[in-house]
Amino acid sequence: MKTRGAPAIAIVAALSLAVDVQTRHANGEFQSAQQALQFLEDSLAYLKTSRPTAVNLFDAAAKLSALNQQTASAAGASADTVVAAYVQAAEQMLIDDVQDNKNIGKFGADFIVEHAQQAQDISVLTHCNTGSLATAGWGTALGIIRDLHKRQQLTHAYCTETRPYNQGSRLTAYELVYEQIPATLICDSMASALLKLRPNVQAIIVGADRVAANGDTANKIGTYQLAITAKHHGILFIVAAPSTSVDLLTATGKDIVIEERPAEELVNTSGVQFLDGKPTPTSVRTAAQHIGVWNPSFDVTPSNLISAIVTERGVVVKQPGQDAFDMAAFLQSQ
Fold first, then answer.
1. Do residues 19 and 82 share a domain?
2. CA atoms within 13 A of residue 18's CA, in its CB half-sphere
3. Cys-Cys crosslink for 304: which of 129, 194, 199, 323, Cβ 3.0 to 4.6 Å?
């Protein structure tokens, strides 16, 4: 969990390997294109074992692997050309991800303004962290919030603390304060009460770690219950994710592998104490000893609860009368 957020996981993996392979090559470790290729392929295979639910890493690894194979098999290939091509591709992924996020922000803000019950004084609720700290920059769901704020059409943003790892209170709250966006932190169990008592909340916006071909979406644990309460209260429930989060090989959410985290993350609360004015990390146990723990990191929201899926290519909606999205048709049409 040193790196989290599906887009960020992919970018950090690609760039960290770029640094590693460049350093090793400078030290004379690779004498041929095949040696450099073998190292890159082994490293990408290892990196893919880190987080099973976030599909962006697998997508990035597949693209980089194809490039490696192509470069290494070209006439006159050398360790120099293989390493240089990989580094350039990894750096381009960083540039592309930032632009993709900004496109998501624009498309998502446009959709909310068009479909919300009121086009001005919009308030939204978000979950987990989907901003600059979870991507290459700007953000997905938080990027939409940034765009609404930039247009002066956002009245307020609410963020959940996102137990048990508290990405909302530690990261999203920080980004909202830093950007000077009017915001309020709530605990996860307050969401339904918020929608009932604060009717100006027009939408719930979340990110995604994997989107199945039918639109079923795996995201941070607690997302599913937010979709249910959005449906009950008649407000928009929007998923914001780059097209690299879409896995057309996964037919439905039933096929998505859900990562489970250590029990310690649930029974302990981590934070910072300020001793003599200096921040000191600390962890405090909040649960009874010997209690059993179930700690899935993600849940799956079925497509029938999702209003729209916002990508850098545009907004995906369901056909009239359909409960599922046709993600393949959308991607093929763009």
1. yes
2. 20
3. 323
Determine the Cα–Cα distance for residues 269 and 63; give it in Å rounded to an integer. Answer: 38
Choose the catalytic residue: 209, 216, 247, 299. 209
Q: What is the pLDDT of residues 120-160, one digit of tens each?
A: 789 999 999 998 888 878 899 999 999 999 999 999 999 99
Residue 313 · residue 96 · CB < 8 Å:
no
Count structural domains, the chain: 2
What does pTM read for this prediction?
A: 0.84
Last residue of a domain, one of 75, 97, 119: 97
Q: The domain that contains 251 carries what CATH number?
A: 3.40.50.10470
Query: How far is 230 from 185, CA to CA, in rounded Å?
Result: 18
Annotated catalytic residue 147: no
Q: Which residues are CB-neighbours of 140 under 8 A, at least 6 positions away?
A: 7, 101, 104, 130, 134, 207, 208, 240, 241, 242, 310
22 burial level (CB within 10 Å; 0-12, 13-18, 19+) = middle
288 part of a folded domain: no
Last residue of a domain, one of 97, 131, 160: 97
Provide CB contacts within 8 A for 198, sequence distance 6+: 123, 158
**Residue 279 resides in a domain:** no
Query: Please, which residues have CB within 8 angstroms of residue 155's CB and are 6 or more apart in sequence?
Result: 121, 122, 123, 182, 200
pLDDT: which is higher, 253 or 54: 253
